[in-house]
Design brief:
Distance between the termini: 38 Å
Radius of gyration: 17 Å
Mean pLDDT: 87
Order of helices and strands: EEHEHEEEEEHEEEEEHE
Length: 265
């Protein structure tokens, strides 16, 4: 079942959720609905070219989200990679961590279960003020899904969502064969005082064997796996993936303006 909102005094939410919360997602919406989360004010976009320590990234996100809520900082989407690691969200089960000694393991307050981050995977942390956009958690997750699906379309790939399954999937089932669907992108978000953080992870060219140390997002059904752009025959560079993500982001959330962030060690 999807995780429910936790509401503090004053009606300010602290939400941890995973993509099944976005049931009933309709990929084609009317124009008015489609632009509910769009703003003219540019969102700042930063790209870190060196792997970023996970704890340093979370500390930065926490501080930035607080500053956005206070009106002391602009909204931000941050593209980065992490060193190889596993993270367990609020729904993570101990039995899904199959190789606890393989990579560092971090508990995190985002929604979802266990996932892998590492080189070749584009993580996008998104710090948006839904108080200025629309106070609709379901809609926000749907828009993240639309963002990923639109970016994949630029590489002639059809991304799909599945009710009850986290993230974006690619159907690789062959005619008259058993079901074969692979996950290409993960979604895990947290929302505090209507400001979002955490976000999405798109597999560009990670070492897919690194997912063997976990049951990714709790999915262990026959015929379900993990894939990447390169695994699907798209020799995409990280720069090309970034360009597709930026291009797909703007019609949904609004224009972006590039900024630099300091190096994270």
């Amino acid at each position: 079942m999807p995780r429910r909102n936790k509401v503090k005094a004053g009606g300010l939410p602290i939400v941890s959720l995973e993509a099944p919360y976005a049931r009933g997602y309709a990929p084609f919406m009317d124009t008015q609905s489609e632009h509910r989360n769009w703003l003219e004010t540019p969102v700042q976009l930063a790209v870190s070219n060196k792997p970023v320590d996970y704890e340093a990234a979370v500390a930065f996100m926490e501080a930035r989200a607080a500053a956005v809520h206070a009106g002391d900082a602009e909204e931000l989407v941050w593209f980065l990679e992490h060193p190889p690691l596993y993270t367990g969200g609020t729904s993570a089960r101990v039995e899904d961590l199959l190789m606890p000694d393989r990579f560092p393991v971090y508990k995190t307050r985002r929604g979802g279960e266990f996932t892998y981050h590492g080189p070749g995977q584009r993580v996008a942390y998104v710090m948006l003020d839904l108080g200025r956009r629309t106070k609709d958690v379901r809609r926000y997750v749907q828009d993240l899904e639309r963002w990923i699906i639109s970016a994949l379309d630029k590489f002639n790939l059809t991304g799909e969502i599945r009710d009850g399954r986290v993230g974006v999937w690619v159907d690789r089932t062959k005619p008259a064969a058993a079901r074969h669907e692979d996950k290409i992108a993960a979604i895990g978000v947290r929302i505090r005082r209507w400001v979002t953080f955490h976000g999405i992870a798109l597999n560009v060219e990670p070492d897919l064997s690194h997912f063997d140390g976990i049951t990714p997002c709790g999915i262990s059904e026959q015929g379900l796996g993990v894939t990447s752009l390169v695994d699907l025959g798209r020799p995409v560079t990280m720069e090309e993936a970034d360009a597709a993500l930026q291009s797909a982001f703007e019609p949904i959330f609004g224009p972006v303006t590039r900024i630099d962030l300091p190096d994270f060690r």
